[in-house]
Give the backbone structure.
Amino acid sequence: MNLRKIIQMLVICVFLTMPLLAQEDEEKEEPKYGWDNKFIGTLNLSQTSLNNWPAGGDNSWNWLLNFNGSFVDKQEAYDWANTLRMQYGQSKIGSDDMRKTDDEFFFESVFTYKVWNTLNPYVAITAQTQFTEGFDYSTDPKTKISNFLDPGFFRQGIGIDYKPEETFKTRLGLAFKQTVADEFAAIWSDDPDTPDEIETLRSEVGLESVTDFSINVSELIVYVTKLQLFSNLNRVDEIDVNWDNLFSAKVADYLSVTLSVVLVYDKDISLQRQLKQTLAVGLTYSFL
């Protein structure tokens, strides 16, 4: 099955199946206006120490820190939703140096003007980068390939937002995308059609589709997904995909288990799909 068919199946799943799952038999409550803020931090730790262990192996140490924030201003005339995600993790095995295993900064701000019941115009901005330098460890010695805002991804969009339920929303519109880089521009932002010049900024105009869905699988398990699609108007048959999936299970008041699966496809960066999976058990604390 090729990538296009996979994307088509994802879109069908998101736009048709999820709204049905999100429907609940609840009485409608009067809307509550004002700020609704949430900020949650998670720390996951793993450590192994071996001494005279006949089966072999090596000492290891892993840690992962996550911060997820949601800051929403709900008013009668508009909604202003802001999302912040920050995560960073490292791993050390044996005598090797510490290696980065996770590194992300993501911010999204969406302003929706309420005109109709479920369909409304919106403007949105997103920003995504990393905190520290990244390396390719498949080479000897290791090769530095990224850093803070090198690359950085930014997008501005305007269009129509569809929100039939609190747990499901999707938007479709015109988008302007920028990829910025500096030291590693040849990897991230360069235009292959201009071999005599290395561009530090790549600007694209296209269509965006962003879908958010969440569901309480049970009283203790939550599934949250975000599907972002972007298609350059000059290459409408090529679709950039960023699909985040998170299963979170609350074991105790401050203990949780999370499974994260991220699928990324961007032909400008790699001709193959990129996949990241993380399973973690750790401490969770809500600041707000």
User: Anything to note?
Assistant: The chain has one domain: 3-20+38-286. The first strand starts at residue 34 and ends at 48. The longest helix spans residues 3-22. DSSP finds two helices and 14 strands in the chain.
